[in-house]
Batch of 2 targets.
Target 1
Amino acid sequence: VSEGNIAMTDIYAKLAWAEKHLAELMSLAQEYLRPGGGDDRPLGIELDNRRPPIVVARFICERPMPVEISLHAGDLVHNTRTALDHVLARLKDHFGGDSRSGTFPITESDADWKGRIYPRRNGKRQRGPLDGLPCCARLLIHREQPHVAYGDRRRDDPIAILS
Amino acid sequence: LRSLVSALDNTDKHRLLHHGFVYPAAERGLDLIQVRDRKKVLSEGNVWVSGQPIAHGTVMARFRIRGLAKDLLRVDPNAEIKLSTGPLDAPRTTYEDMIVRVRGIAGRAGALIDGQP
């Protein structure tokens, strides 16, 4: 096992935990969307033929969405976002910087990147989230930015959701 | 069933509960229903279109048929329903893609650590 893999152990554990929430969320959702028990109303769609010759295809879901679905969704997003922040912390552990401060940046443009990574106030440089990291680590994080990794389709980048 | 997450603003991220909703992956309500024998369908009309929310009782499509619905119509077994959390009109991704993307970043960060003295 490489040093890099060891450094990322907690991150992979967080992501595995997020997947566990996802599996439970999906299980609840499958049950929720089969109110007729599966075959009677697949996908919750009922074919109402009570007034022949008219048939109405109607979505039926008598119960409110289980609150647990939203709870799992919230935990899943939180775990994934935290995993991303831990990536930054582990890079700082290895390369330099204060691993207790700074969150993994997710930016929309180069201007946004500059403003957040090299913040200034009243003309003075302020502390930035990547301070202490060498160029190679900053470059890696820059390459992962939605506007770099996905270009014009930056909103399609799955991590854009976590910004 | 696919489960999606919509972009969250800062307020959303700190809320415990996100609004959840379901919607079909199809473009139209009619696309969700398969007809076994077209000759027995006198007419059909679409009601629901993609982008509209669905809730209990939402009408997806209407048909005028000859005979019994159960012999003629069925829900497309390949149709997909999505479950989403967050605002309906915000950019979306799947939870799976989000996790895979972050795992990829962790893998590249680990490789960078391995590649440095």
Note: The mean pLDDT of chain B is 80.
Target 2
Amino acid sequence: MAGYHHSMQEQDTKVDLERESARLAKLSLAGDRGAFDRLIMLHKSKVFNLCFRLLGDYDDADDCAQEVFIKVSRALKNYRFESRFSTWLYRVTVNTCKNKFRSRDYRLRSKKVRIDTVIPMEDNEKIVDIENGAGSPATELLRKEIDRLIQKAIDALPPKQKLVVVLRDIEGKSYEEIVGITGFKLGTVKSKLSRARQQLREALQGQI
Amino acid sequence: MDCREIKNRISEYIDGMLGETEASEVKHHLAKCADCSEAYRSSVKII
């Protein structure tokens, strides 16, 4: 969370990712199954990360991410290429997470936060990526502890505040993108974000 | 703006989402109010 600054290079990468996603989506719609698989590969860790941040549980996030891609495969024909592919994909992800929140089963279960587990992907990517970069074992331990405290504080936020703060401060989305993803009004995004940050500040005071 | 209003605007101030006049008002308030200034610094730290 701390220290997210988006350089020009990151912006270029973002543009490239959007362009490539749109290209693969068009190929998928034309019946190229391999293109759809490549589209999933491009976005799977981001989708999983978002699910994990919102749900706070590895297994739920894994189920949810799979559900997202099933929905995407069915709904891709309805994607109009008017908004960014990632905005559309995040909207599907957020809605899928919301459904999970609403499900009786989910609400009845006690939540477990397992952010301290770094989950290896097939391509050795790290899922938990608050602040990547190798450090000494002590630094790594400290980073994990801070990560755990932040996730615990995020998990305690009301759902809408949690959603907005995760999209802004972890996923680095702009206010406009958050409006597009959540369907909230700009004023709502601003006020929820302000309240979420104040709560996080109070919860983390003296801890990090 | 009083301290409560300033604290409600710190989030937007950090993101550069305030208009020039409001941003200037927040900036001046932060320069003279230790409590709001501390709230600002700790918000920057967690963001």
Note: Residues 60 and 198 of chain A are 28 Å apart (CA to CA).
